[in-house]
Design a protein that fits this description.
Rna Polymerase Sigma Factor, Chain: A, 9 helices
Length: 191
Amino acid sequence: MNEPDAIKLCIKHRDPRGFEYLFHQYRREAYLHAFGFTGNTEDASDMCQEAFMKAFVSITRLRELERFYPWFYRILRNTCLNLIKRREVARKHRDREVMTTQDGSEAGDPLGLLKQKETTGEIYVNLDRLRLDQREILMLKYFQDLDYRQISALLNIPRGTVMSRLYNARKAYRDLETPNVKPKSPSLYDK
């Protein structure tokens, strides 16, 4: 079986074997993308499972689909972004409560500390400090080794926009690596 046949089975015949093929074909790539967003293995697995379930339900409603992964990536991306937004809201609420109960004294963010322990290297720590769109474009380029054309197709944006976003994300990352100091050696993302 190939991807066009699997898509046809899903859309025209509502046959789960087609989706099973697509799942096996893209589960690793989806996991790596989800890990780039969430920063830990457990959340990445959960987000993949949720996104594949959403895609399984939604694919039968489509009239046609040329390629599976760009369509699925948008579902996965939105699923991960929703999790991150929910956590940010919860963290802000928790921080506000801590500040009011402790007379304004600074308290460590347990969720933030746990996340730092789960991410092992300085790269992940710095990536986590970037805006989501910057983190995403760097992850696609350097962790997934996608070229501009592939990123353009996944994000559904022009190639020039990919280049511009990548430039700005690299600059933001460099600023995190060495604040207020010019780098002496090339950064990870200077390629």
